[in-house]
Automatic annotation (TrEMBL):
PANTHER family, sorted: DNA REPAIR PROTEIN RECO (PTHR33991)
Record's protein name: DNA repair protein RecO
Entry keyword set: DNA damage, DNA recombination, DNA repair
A single cellular component GO annotation: bacterial nucleoid
InterPro entries tied to this protein: ARFGAP/RecO (IPR037278), DNA_rep/recomb_RecO_N (IPR022572), NA-bd_OB-fold (IPR012340), RecO (IPR003717), RecO_C (IPR042242)
Gene: recO
Length: 251
């Protein structure tokens, strides 16, 4: 039995037995792991650093990839998000989406950075939560092998040099106006929507959420991002349904 030290973010908790808990966590190198926290629900045995929405340094026992908690020291807690039910629900959705896109024993460090910066953005309160959500959706899909192509026409293959630019959620490609009209299934992008998409897809992880958008561009950017995730992953998310149930229709 080996001892492992690593940093990870708690994504989800599941109670097990009378006193134990399993913690799904995202390591700093982008792996999804399951940690058995023995006696985690028994009085003084509880460790507040081994919880959902905590980024902590863990000491684990490793038995062939099966991890058991020995100790954990908190690096940063996002518990403040639980004080706002909408932000908490959104955080749970970001966690669930990340869980769906991570693979055990496969490193993808960008995912952990993206999620941490998204939670920091929500915690800080200076960013529009809907834009944080949409930017996260676009970028995590791209980092996970579902990147949309916005530079060349998905119909004729030529580089799109002049606006307007159209986009198909299903095809995951852009098209010039002439080709889009000919084949159908493409929606014309508002210029600022296109700029926001390019920013979300290419910016450094700590800058992904550093932008603003309003009006029709905001609605298009956010609506397409959510539709893109649902279509290309072929599934919905319970946490997303709960988040939407808390809101009035997005304007």
């Amino acid at each position: 039995m080996a001892e492992v030290k690593l940093r990870a973010l708690g994504l989800r908790e599941v109670d097990f037995g009378d006193f134990d808990r399993y913690l799904t966590a995202l390591t700093e190198d982008g792996r999804r792991i399951e940690i058995l926290c023995k006696n985690a629900r028994r009085g003084k045995k509880q460790n507040p650093a081994a919880r959902q929405l905590c980024y902590s340094e863990f000491i684990l026992s490793d038995r062939g990839g099966r991890y058991t908690l020995r100790d954990a020291d908190l690096v940063h807690s996002f518990f403040a998000l639980a004080g706002d039910i909408e932000k908490y629900a959104l955080s749970c959705y970001l966690n669930e989406l990340t869980t769906a896109l991570t693979v055990p024993d496969f490193d993808n460090p960008a995912l952990c950075r993206l999620l941490l910066y998204a939670l920091y953005a929500l915690e800080g309160g200076k960013r529009d939560p809907e834009l944080v959500k949409a930017a996260f959706e676009w970028r995590i899909m791209a980092e996970s092998g579902y990147a949309p192509d916005l530079t060349s026409c998905g119909v004729c293959g030529e580089v799109i040099e002049n606006p307007p630019v159209c986009f198909s959620v299903r095809a995951g490609t852009a098209a010039d106006a002439k080709c889009a009209k000919r084949v159908g299934g493409y929606a014309q992008l508002v210029d600022s929507t296109l700029r926001a998409m390019l920013h979300a897809l290419t910016a450094e992880p700590n800058k992904v959420y550093a932008f603003a958008l309003s009006g029709p561009a905001r609605e298009q950017f956010c609506g397409m991002a959510e539709e893109y995730v649902k279509y290309h992953l072929g599934r919905g998310f319970e946490s997303l349904q709960f988040y939407r149930s808390l809101q009035a229709p997005m304007k």
